[in-house]
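Dear Dr. K.,

Following up on our conversation at the group meeting, I've run the structure prediction for Dihydrofolate reductase family protein from Agromyces lapidis. I'm pasting the input sequence below exactly as I used it, so you can double-check it against your construct before we proceed with anything downstream. Let me know if the numbering doesn't match what you have in your notebook.
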Amino acid sequence: MRELVYYVAVSLDGFIAGPNGEYDAFAVEGDHMTAINERYSDTVATHVAEAFGVEADGRMFDTVLMGWNTYAVGLPYGITSPYRHLRQIVFSREHAAAAERVEGVEVTDRNPGEYVRELKAEEGSSIWLCGGGALAAALADEIDRLVIKRYPVLFGAGVPLFGPRAYAPQAFEAVEARAFESGVTFGEYARRG
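The predicted structure tokens came back this morning:
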């Protein structure tokens, strides 16, 4: 069965974006980028991978899930299909029936948990939960693995790693931890049990 992996950048104070969706405080230069390009190359946007010769081959992920706000980050720049090398699924109750349809991007208003259980039963690589925090909260029970890239920056406010959800502790165990000279740390956690 396929895994759902929440692979995401986060500030020291637990935010994946600033109050207005800002994410530019997350450094895109430094020794941590080698690790991203080697192991997690599927998470590099297609146009960036092509420009820098990064091979995104579907070895780690073949599907990406996004909430509308995460997907919409690229729209002002004309980026309507950010991960063309992956199956792209965007969850939105407001935009599912709208004209924002783009080839290679599926916008759905389906229940995220039900849909992810169906995706997990399919053949393929792991499923990448790209963001945002509200979608992560809706899928908390389905997340099999967390890969947290913690950046040495404080936002003070913004989009939390997980949006509000009913209190239900969920145990994960540490699988790997790496620290880089850039100050970025990677922590990988697998669901316990």
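Two things stood out to me. The chain has a mean pLDDT of 93. The chain has one domain: 4-191.

Best regards,
J.T.
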